[in-house]
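Retro notes - structure team

What went well: the batch runner handled both jobs without manual restarts.
What didn't: labels got mixed up in the shared folder, which is why I'm recording both outputs here explicitly, each with its sequence directly above its tokens.

Job 1
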Amino acid sequence: MIKSLFKKALVAVNGSKYSEHALMYSFILAKQMHISLKVVFVVDTATINHLALSKLFIADEKEYYKNNLVSDGEKYLKYVEELAKAKGVLVETELRKGSVWSEVVKAAKEYEADHIIIGGQEYKPAESIQRNVVSSTLSEIIASSHCSVLVVKQPEIEALFNYL
């Protein structure tokens, strides 16, 4: 008998439309394949610290910005929990701080996930700077992960999610 490839998945979210698509996709998978889900929001304190060292932030600004991001992350994870409950999906959530890619990889390993699910986006030349940052994070997750990484790039996922 072949062992199921999907048992536990970690979903990385950041509040963007693309991570929302990854979340929707993961809820559909959870319902169809009866997998366990953990949703992680990472506050990118590594970048905040780098900006502070570069003197782009003063200490007060650094703390203010970090606290706002933590608050945003907590609110978003609360939304995830409410959405999961409304869709009948059991989900565990966690807010982490640090470098996004390394915290996602660590969380997946700690959770013993067999997949990381993350949102992806189409290449649009006008958004190349933003894309480079996203691509770098995604590349690091793929290269460093102990498990498979599923990149959700299906804008029609919202329509499918509404049937859940």
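Job 2
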Amino acid sequence: MTRRATIDEADPYAEDESAADGDDRIHRAGARARMPFDGRWRRILLWGAPIVVVVIVLLVIAYFTPALSVRSVQVEGVSAVPEQDVRAVLQIPDGRSMLRIDTDAIARRVASLPKVRSARVQRVFPSTVRVTVDERTAVVFFDSPQGPHLLDGDSVEFAIEPPPPGVAKLVTGHPGSADPVTRAAVAVLDAAPPALRAQVGEVVARSVSDIELKLRDDRTVIWGGADDSERKAAVVLPVLTRPGTVFDVSSPDLVTVR
């Protein structure tokens, strides 16, 4: 009896000590795991904070002072458009920081010039703004009391002036950018092979489906409409090697020559 009581009294104490030792080991292991992690973050904050401050200060200096101001402007891609016209619409104030210029707004102003199809504006650090211009190119013209009107490949009417050499004349009832027949005629000319376009003196458009290309040597190509132009372009040059004055490719499966 005495021996059993001794064992019963000892067992609870043994269990308590074991549990206490286990808790201590867990706390010590957790502390050791946190120490390197916390130390790394302290080092990052210690070295990173001054770097962030320096970067912010440099950005403020560059943004609000003449340190990175625009000192030169390069204009590229102009021939028909006078360079001074491009520079006149840039509106870049003297001493303006490179970081404060609105390149999209500048590009829109340049593209608003009648002879400009599109424009791209880039910052070239430390102090240059580059403006690249894509000019409109006349593909046809039509006569009016005001003079010859030039249209580009998008059917945009962009100038009233003598056409460049080699530009075909458009003959239609109501020529203009908003006219469907005009747009169809420009689409036909654009679809024609370059070797054929170089020979076209007039584009006669009676409707969107009745378009003829009159060549400078008095031959005529009856094209029809702008539909199926890829197949028409594929057969027209071989057909033009045949004797004749009128070449009808309006139906590319049934070409006729007379």
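One thing worth noting from job 2: Helices lie at 2-64, 83-90, 103-111, 180-191, 194-197, 229-239.
We'll revisit the folder naming next retro.
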